[in-house]
Amino acid sequence: MKRLWHWPIDPLARTVRLLMGEKGWSYESIEIRPWVSDLELAALAPGASAPALLDTDAEVRTSAVGSLAICEYIEEAQSSPRLLPFTPMEKAEARRLWQWSEESFAGINNTLLAERVTQWVKRDRAPNSGALRQGAHALKNRMTFLDALAGERAYMAGRNLSLADLSIAAHLSSYDYFGDVPWDLTPDLKAWFARIKSRPSFRSLLEDRVGNAKPVKHYTDLDF
């Protein structure tokens, strides 16, 4: 049995879920809110936080905490389909952009996404307009870079789907839930996202609902 502790709108958890979908892994979904403690999760490892995976199907009962550790574990446990390319050069590029995604979007997660969660999910205070503007500006800058890549390559790291694509798509999908992605500014990126969004692994993300916050109308539209 595999158990995944996660919060549906968290981009890092979404990256893990997309990878598990691509690998065909089924799992028990344990949804937790980041601001609420979970004793079972805390018992997995010192300082554990979501996303976290417990795999009791492995030869040795294994827990992995954090998106990087989980994705590396899954890729090593099941190499097919390969989400880190085989050749060293392609693998290095996929790892570079995967790392770029996690680091570059972190500030947006802490501003734009965090304020949307405060506004529509937690509803415990008014959103910080300055943080919203800061996050929206940063998102546009990241999208300009990604649009250039999407115009040159079939996938972000080259010829094949990789963890770089899954991480980037996971982040953009979280922002898109609240309608914060200016797709009209980046047509090549939009076309790439439409292809990723149409993959079977994306279906569970399109079914996500976070509290009483409904996604924007185009969120589930594959031809948005």
Summarize this, please?
By secondary structure, this protein is an alpha+beta fold.
Please tell me about this protein's structure.
The chain is of the alpha+beta class. The chain is built from nine helices and four strands, in the order E-H-E-H-E-E-H-H-H-H-H-H-H. The chain folds into two domains: 2-77, Glutaredoxin (3-Layer(aba) Sandwich), CATH 3.40.30.10; 88-220, Up-down Bundle (Glutathione S-transferase Yfyf (Class Pi), Chain A, domain 2). The protein has a four-stranded mixed sheet, with helices on one face. Helix 1 links the parallel strand 1 (2-6) and strand 2 (28-31). The longest helix is centred in the middle third of the chain and has 24 residues, at 129-152. The protein is globular and about 50 Å long. It starts with a strand and ends in an 18-residue tail after the last helix. The mean pLDDT is 94.
CATH class of the largest domain: Mainly Alpha
**Spatial strand order of the main sheet:** 2-1-3-4
Describe the main β-sheet briefly: 4 strands, mixed
- Overall geometry comes to globular
Unreliable stretches covering 5 or more consecutive residues: none
Task: Give the end-to-end Cα distance, rounded to a whole number of Å.
Answer: 36 Å
Percent helix: 40-55%
